[in-house]
């Protein structure tokens, strides 16, 4: 009896020791986990603090470009744009990227009857007999601008005024199909897609120049092609994973280590399978190749339009880094290609385009740019008015284009 009791007590003591050992291991591991997280957290905090010290904070826009706009109105415009930027972009077949639908007081993007995105413009004040499609990049889309401040909106205002002067003529409706980041080759593809879907505008206006970097030099490759190819390969090869929550420092570190390893693999794959995306446009920059790319794309757009009886106008737009009094300047390495290309377009005149690259200089504009590239409301209006005058200068009939 005593032996049985002793053995039972011994077993309980051994079990208690196991529990104590387990508790010690768990407690020690917990403290180590917390301590390690604390150390990693301090490391992240110091690293992020150093980064913040090295960052030069600049206002989102140059407020002098909005001298005639009330503070409340400008605040609303910039807040709406900030909210829109959080939406990113959407995938668009063939074109690659498009601007997502959005609704706010000052910035509105919707889809037409065929599902193509366009930005809201000033409404026509007359019976519409013709449609004018406007293509371009972010400057034409209207970055840092309210719906009614964009180039297409000011064009619509000019058409509205013209119809008031000639009330017996059919009016024009301007549609803003410009897309942020679009190159002239993407405009060609989008133009084809719109016509293929069933659109039949009377006129197409293509505004180019600032976005020449968005196609990998003269290769006519969209700006996000490498990232798109990487996602494609990650999906095919099973590299897409669900990361741990970054709120826990040690899990954040694991995410970073895994990301570094995945990127190494992807860089090797992209180098092997996508050689045409691995070049460096800056080192291969050629004004001749870019001009040839633009001319060939212009011919293609014009030829397609002629099949459908659509009038075309090609605009070479002002650039904030070329003969313009801009308070925001890019680095010299980025200014050189702009100057070289724009000088080339002035020297070697291309038949069929309206070159507005000297518009700032001729009009002695100051404080006209919202940032390094994008226009303030005054410059948008001047560009639109100049384009409108160009539309009528080749015809003797003031009533029609």
Secondary-structure-derived class: alpha/beta
* Biggest pleated sheet: 5 strands, parallel
Secondary structure: helix percent: 40-55%
- Poorly predicted ranges: 51-58
Query: For the residues shown, what is the average pLDDT?
Result: 83
Any idea what the radius of gyration is?
29 Å
Q: What is the approximate shape?
A: elongated
In short:
This protein is α/β, with parallel strands linked by helices and 401 residues long. Helix content is 49%, strand content 10%. The protein is built from 11 helices and 9 strands.
Characterise the protein shown here.
- The protein is an alpha/beta fold and 401 residues long.
- It contains 11 helices and 9 strands.
- It has helices spanning 2-54, 71-85, 138-141, 151-165, 184-197, 225-237, 249-273, 287-307, 332-347, 359-363, 377-392, and strands at 90-92, 96-98, 109-111, 117-119, 128-135, 171-176, 203-208, 311-316, 353-355.
- The strands form 3 sheets. The protein has a 5-stranded parallel sheet, sandwiched between helices. It has a two-stranded antiparallel ribbon with strand order 1-2. A two-stranded antiparallel ribbon has the order 3-4.
- The radius of gyration is 29 Å and the shape is elongated.
- The chain starts with a helix and ends in a 9-residue tail after the last helix.
- 30% of the residues are buried.
